[in-house]
Automatic annotation (TrEMBL):
Record bears the keyword Glycoprotein: no
Keyword vocabulary terms for this entry: Cell membrane, Membrane, Transmembrane, Transmembrane helix, Transport
Database matches in InterPro entries: BP-dep_ABC_trans_perm, MetI-like, MetI-like_sf
DNA-binding in keyword set: no
Name assigned to this protein: Carbohydrate ABC transporter permease
Primary location: membrane
Source organism of the structure: Humibacter ginsenosidimutans
Amino acid sequence: MSTVTEPVGAPVLEEVPARPVAARKRRRRRPRIVSNVVAIVLSVIWVFPVYWMVNTAFKPRYEVMTPTPMFFPQHPTFSNFVAAATESTFLVNLRNSLIVVVGTLIFAIVLGALASAALSRFRFRGRKLILVVVLAVQMLPGTALLIPQFVVFNQMGLTNNYFGLILAYVAATLPFTIWVMRGFFVAIPVEIEEAARVDGATNWQILWRVLFPLVTPGIIASSIFAFIAAWNDYLVAYTFMNDQSMYTLPVWLATFTTPTTGTDFGGLMAASVLFSLPVVIFFVIIQRNLVSGMSAGAVKG
């Protein structure tokens, strides 16, 4: 039986006491607690206006105008919703918004898909310059372009009609659509396109049957962006439309404030709920596809 002996003169290492487990857990939890508190505070700040809008929409007028804030309606009522939907031009403005939004989606997606396919799958002179110009246009603020755009559209007779408003929204959303879809087109291997060409497919067949199905997430993400931009816009619609019967829903919301009668806060909040509800429901349904599509486009671009 052998025994192990320490060499003479070797330094003796002292055992470092183990750090208490509770202290280590506290150090790990501290950043998470701070971040959670910050997230909760920011969430409350963001959610409170939405809550107050819904809360006010269900209040009768005398509860809306009380000097003391009431955080819950004492006598909830749907009268504000009924008045907003029946005693105004809600249905007419809803029709106008649907016409403009659907037209914007069709033009933006078709033009964006074809332009991004051309800029990513074909080689021609000036391709990079076009991409730089598209990116530069996207960086310009919309308010800076509003007056020049209105002057040009007015001289061409495109103001006060649906087609002109649709073109204005397409011009605003097309650069972003091209850049998002281009990322998806660039990520597709060239070998897939070459295999289809060997099988005798034409350029249009390759685009329609091979490339477009592969960039469907990008088309969905771009269409959602175009939908939200056209649905929520107030400034361009109010500037380009002179006929009140052609106003869209964001402009319709402003009719609840008049110089003579003041602001109907209950009706305005009910109208805001009606205006926001379709977008919120639509966004909740497809938000997973939107996030994945935007992330994939950003990485692949």
